[in-house]
């Protein structure tokens, strides 16, 4: 009696993945063990059936080998329902956390789909680079065989400069090169799919020994496909005439001669699906207009408030006279501590509200502080220059009182910071205390008293370097900041 299929597969140490039918109606399998050793490149224009092909391969080999899928469009997350793949949405994690996933996946041999949908190109490349590098750098005892499928591979291994920083491009290209060139010894079998061979780095594409070429229209892509299939240039025209879902296959895991395969059906589908024709609604034009313009009446906007009137000339003269001849000023009333605190708060409110004061240093504004205090009968000024500098920093962060009570713990944590940086720290601490969105670079710059975004970022980096703050940037490019001494964390927000 012949052994059970599973035993046969174990004895042969291989598995035949049925991909579909050739022109004669015969099944065309892919040898899984050979595929693990020789890698695969899939190419075809949009609509040629690449995703369908990858889904067929993944479904038919599920349970036989670990599968790791880098999915830029979120097409393959549906594999989890039918085959147990774990979907990881990169939008929800940091780069460091994604790298940890990569290490744990190799250790536990879990099939996963890394869903990059929603990230900009640079975020996708950063995430893929960290993830692939973690797979590649796994310790030797975790070098189990795994299929690593990378859809839209031209994003992660561009043949020319992409619209991202050079650092990101190099990291992503290096990770893809390691996967295809050096991954075999580590058990990683790269399966890459691309719409455009001309946009895919040649050193990455050249490492594949198996090819499945779908419908392609551009001459440069047809020429490269024909070269990889060992066809003459005049034969390349047949690649343009391939039907959707039909691929020319060549390689040691499929066929020693080019063979056309009509990819078979699949059991799962993508979340979005392809566009299909559906009947238009039959409402009359009047009804449709009513639907479109419902509740769209132009709101009545109040007239903008008139600009503030400039101060009267006599008031300016009085102010100048008071500064120039303080001896002739009116007798100064006495103020108790509560009244002085109120005066300080009112004057700081006025200074911070003055748009011209935003870029002035504290030393210059201290003179204005003295004048304003004198105008309300407080002389000498109730704060020395150092005390004013710290109170001004707090006021720019929106904190006008309670520095010695409610904010005493925060002030104590920042006691070693220069006075001019205290405002940025307090601005972040106030947002963290209330779990509000992290202040933007522009808000930090205004608090620091500068218009330079770069300087504001350097200040934040300096404060973080002193261990007072910890910054975390997620894959969506949003920043959150933690004050570790107090256990407060801001909500995530855009950096700019």
From TrEMBL:
InterPro entries: ATPase_Atu1862_pred, HerA-like, HerA_central, P-loop_NTPase. It comes from Sphingomonas psychrolutea. This is ATP-binding protein. Residues 22-83 form the Helicase HerA central domain. The keyword Nucleotide-binding applies. PANTHER family: HELICASE MJ1565-RELATED. Keywords: ATP-binding, Nucleotide-binding. SUPFAM superfamilies: P-loop containing nucleoside triphosphate hydrolases. GO terms for molecular function: ATP binding. It comes from the Bacteria. Pfam families: DUF87.
């Amino acid at each position: 009696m012949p052994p059970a299929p599973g035993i046969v597969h174990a004895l042969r140490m291989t598995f035949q993945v049925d991909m579909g039918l050739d022109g004669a109606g015969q099944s065309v399998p892919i040898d899984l063990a050979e595929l693990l050793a020789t890698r695969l490149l899939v190419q075809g224009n949009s609509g040629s059936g690449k995703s369908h092909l990858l889904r067929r391969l993944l479904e038919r080999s599920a349970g036989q080998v670990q599968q790791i899928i880098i999915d830029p469009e979120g097409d393959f997350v549906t594999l989890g329902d039918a085959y147990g793949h774990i979907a990881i949405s990169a939008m929800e994690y940091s780069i460091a956390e994604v790298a940890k996933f990569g290490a744990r996946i190799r250790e536990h041999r879990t099939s996963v789909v890394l869903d990059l949908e929603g990230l900009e190109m640079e975020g996708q490349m950063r995430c893929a680079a960290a993830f692939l590098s973690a797979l590649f750098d796994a310790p030797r005892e975790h070098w189990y065989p795994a299929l690593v499928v990378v859809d839209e591979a031209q994003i992660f291994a561009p043949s020319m400069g992409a619209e991202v920083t050079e650092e990101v491009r190099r990291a992503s290209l290096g990770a893809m090169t390691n996967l295809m060139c050096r991954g075999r010894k580590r058990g990683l079998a790269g399966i890459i799919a691309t719409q455009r061979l001309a946009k895919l780095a040649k050193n990455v594409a050249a490492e594949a020994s198996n090819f499945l070429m779908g419908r392609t229209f551009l001459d440069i892509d047809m020429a490269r496909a024909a070269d990889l299939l060992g066809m003459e240039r005049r034969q390349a025209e047949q690649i343009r005439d391939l039907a959707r879902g039909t691929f020319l296959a060549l390689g040691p895991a499929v066929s020693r001669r080019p063979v056309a395969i009509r990819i078979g059906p699949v059991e799962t589908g993508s979340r979005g699906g392809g566009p299909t024709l559906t009947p238009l609604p039959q409402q009359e034009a009047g009804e449709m207009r009513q639907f479109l313009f419902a509740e769209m009446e132009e709101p009545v906007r109040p007239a903008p408030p008139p600009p503030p009137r400039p101060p009267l000339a006599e008031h300016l003269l009085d102010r100048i006279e008071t500064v120039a001849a303080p001896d002739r000023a009116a007798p100064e009333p006495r103020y108790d501590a509560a009244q002085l605190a109120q005066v300080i708060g009112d004057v700081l409110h006025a200074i911070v509200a003055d748009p011209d004061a935003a870029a002035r240093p504290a030393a210059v504004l201290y003179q204005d502080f003295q004048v304003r205090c004198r105008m309300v009968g407080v002389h000498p000024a109730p704060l020395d220059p150092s005390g004013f500098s710290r109170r001004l920093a707090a006021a720019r962060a929106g904190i006008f009182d309670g520095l010695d009570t409610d904010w005493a713990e925060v002030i104590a944590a920042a006691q070693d910071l220069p006075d001019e940086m205290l405002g940025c720290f307090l601005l972040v601490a106030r947002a963290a205390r209330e779990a509000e969105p992290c202040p933007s670079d522009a808000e930090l710059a205004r608090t620091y008293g500068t218009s330079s975004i770069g300087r504001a970022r350097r200040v934040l980096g300096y404060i973080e370097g002193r261990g007072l703050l910890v910054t975390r940037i997620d894959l969506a490019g949003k920043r959150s900041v933690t004050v570790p001494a107090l256990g407060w964390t801001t909500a995530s927000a855009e950096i700019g």
